[in-house]
Amino acid sequence: MLAPLRGSSYLLASVVFLCASLPTVFPCCPAASAQEASQVAQLTAVIAKLRDRAESGDLTAQVQLSKYLISANPSTEPYELALGWARAAAEANDSRAQFVVGYLYDHGRGVPQDYAKAAKYYQAATVRGHRVAPNNLAALYYGGLGVPKDVNKAFELLLVSADRGDPVGEYNLAVFYSLGTATTADASEAFRWFRASAEQGYARAQRELGVLYAKGGPVPVDHAEAAHWITLAARQGNSAAETDLGFLYESGRGVALDYVQAYAWYARAAAEGERSAPAHLKYVSRIMTPAQLQRAKALLSASSSPPDEGGTDVSSGRAFLPDP
């Protein structure tokens, strides 16, 4: 068993790193609000309770504590602490902890990046039934990272991951079927798994499902369904979906014709680096009236940015394939 956290200074350091994501700063700053101070106090209490449980050998607490630390502002110390607690639980054959350790080696967080070690821990977690581990192990086999490159093995692991209900694994499997990678191309199976992933809220799958409804093929063309799924993805910050949604508003497909909304979604996508968005934005701005342009810019100023799809989420899998 790993030695417990070394004193209150380590706990305090962890809380400081975790609180870096709060709206302003640590409560000792005079500018901090009472609400933010309350949030920090609650977080401190949560970390303290988790630490006490972790030190008593509670595997669930050890895994939860490591996830809290991984979610902190990236820094060597939190990741080293997270690795320590996760290793302690992994040694007791906890699949969740094995996945966390694999994740840290996979991404080089707190340790030198080591794909072979990542594969070892992902494999152990997969054998013990972890939902996400087969997908991440598939990514390593697909890229030949730490293991021999084996696309067929990657496909087999994605079947396991999708069967266990991992939305990213379902998405990756759908892409395999869509492209005919390591299997016969099958549009119906691709649609099935895109839909399964989309229904769990995975933005990339929602966007692909919307595109399938817009283009037809495995399903009849249905612009209303296309707009529904593309809107869900765009609201999560998927820049490709933001561009698609702009086009739907520009053309009045599945939604009411609305140049103001089209401009706003194109502008969001362009700001996030979507390559095709600037050309669309330039075109729609030319056919808008000055009043419409003014309303669109006001809408952009008033609306908050959609959430980022990225971030450090040790519970999520790796989407390692290009969009089909």
Tell me the structural class. mainly alpha
- CATH fold field value of the largest domain: Serine Threonine Protein Phosphatase 5, Tetratricopeptide repeat
The average pLDDT score comes to 83
CATH architecture of the largest domain: Alpha Horseshoe
Give the helices and strands as they follow along the chain.
HHHHHHHHHHHHHHHH
End-to-end CA span:
46 Å
- The top level CATH class name of the largest domain: Mainly Alpha
Number of helices: 16
The CATH homologous superfamily name of the largest domain equals: Tetratricopeptide repeat domain
User: What is the count of distinct domains?
Assistant: 3
What is the helix content? 55-70%
**Gyration radius over CA:** 23 Å
Which structural traits does this protein have?
about 325 residues; mainly alpha; Serine Threonine Protein Phosphatase 5, Tetratricopeptide repeat; 3 domains; about 65% helix
